[in-house]
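I'm curious: can you give me some protein's one-letter sequence along with its backbone structure tokens because I've never seen that pairing?
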Amino acid sequence: MSVRQNIILFVMLCICALPRLVAQPDPAWTQPMTPFRIVGNLYYVGSKDLASYLITTPDGHIVINSGFEANVPMIQASIKKLGFNITDVRYLLISHAHNDHCSGAAAFKKISGALYMVMHEDSAVVATGGKKDFHYGGMTDALYPPARVDHVLEDGDVVKLGTMRLVAHRTGGHTKGCTTWTMTITDKGANYNVVIVGSMGVNPGYRLVGTPSYPTIEVDYERTFATLRSLPCDIFLGAHGSYFDLERKAKASVKQGVKAFVDPAGYTAYVATKERDFKAERARQLRNLYRRSVAITIDDLPYAGEGTLADAQAATKKLLRALAADSVRADVFVVGTHVEVEGEKAARQQLVRAWRDAGHGLHNHSYSHLRYSAVPTEDYRADVHRGEVLVTALRNERRNDTMPPYFRAPYNDLGGSQGKRDSLMTLLTKDGVRLAPFTVEHSDYIFNVVYRKALAANDTARAARVRRDYLDFLDQAFAFAEETSQEMFTRQIPQVFLIHANTLNADCLPDMLQRLRDRGYTFVPFRKAVSDTAYQTPDLYTEKWGRSWLHRWRLSMKLPSITRNEPEPPMWIQDAYNNK
């Protein structure tokens, strides 16, 4: 057999084996475990990994998860060993409608007489024995005995029995109606917030993007993580013991009691890990589906706006470190007056050289950062040329620098008239310089002003809020660019991202790059991005407003303007920027 034939055979065998992997339980799923009290009136009655819980009250009991049919006698025996009776179980609940958590439900109901309560989005699945499961419904070995649902739950419903109140949180994705249960348990006068996590895993074969496994699966996962992050948690439990280190904690509880299960940090870490796993899988699927890529470009080197040399040095160090950590090559645009500062010229030149020596491309952003529409053409042309001389000198210190030079107009202002634009393009062509486009920017200069004010006032809470909203706004800006690219070119084009060398980006760039990876982006050099055929679209724009090339291309493509659809920063950021 050829290598190719062997690979095909292996894949076919794996595919054929998938249903059996669903049906054949892990040994720990059916291996008995001595039942024990977790806290107060909450007990563990499951196997060594497949978790089942008993909540007792004088008015009857509640069980969460029946497990496989083979687990039901084990659960019954565990309940009896604890001194209770399965026939006193009033309600049977589940974590989600996969066979390892609910295929024993019909048998459990028959023995106990309990009422079966299931989240709305999972109710049809358990009622059909798994046939309506969005992923496993067509796998014969994944099906199980159907069970009648006695009460359909909605997100936020409260199951009441005696003094107990269990809140059902729909945490969909793993199944449509995956449910996380929360309750408050009192033990020796202390109250504990208990969270029993349904599941957050993205199973093999789940499609999150493109043609998703079900239409809202991606949104459901995102809401799930937001919900779980918001829940107060003292005692972290879950549908599988492996989620919360069951066996170790159970052994420790013999001596420590409830303290062994108090683990808010473990809960937070577990949720964060699963969210990272989800984002990584989504990014992988996005890359395979759309082949998303982005070039990072940074304006106003060595440092944007007002600030000391120390500010510029600190920002440069952070920006370079973040890019190096992700092996990202950026292209940077230098402003002459930001370099040739009285008494600081040598030090600021060294900052620019640090970018060059790290492998980033140096380009001209003019000498004085003038707004073209506000000055005479000849003055602007002279300023652009002066900036090019300065940057060329720094570039030529490295003889092997073959990066083609680009110019980015300050404010992306092309003069406001066809005559001024033509004059600028004539100069650039003469000097062998190209005009640098961009497709995404997200008002970082506005956020940066508000951020620096917060830092100056030692208002750490406000500064943190700026960073959070800034990162969220990055997602909005890229979502707009992605949607627009798809509309205009029926595909995802390489994006060119414009940011500035400022304090906010220095502090946020690692998180920004992670957000882009989470969106499925790979990082490419600027010249590779602009070699895409989309960037050959004629640009007829002459105005002074710094619109992205996605808007400029629409003129030549004779498409309607969508500038009003572009996201705006949060109103509180705009008000703070305008000193309102």
Remarks:
- Residues 211 and 289 are 10 Å apart (CA to CA).
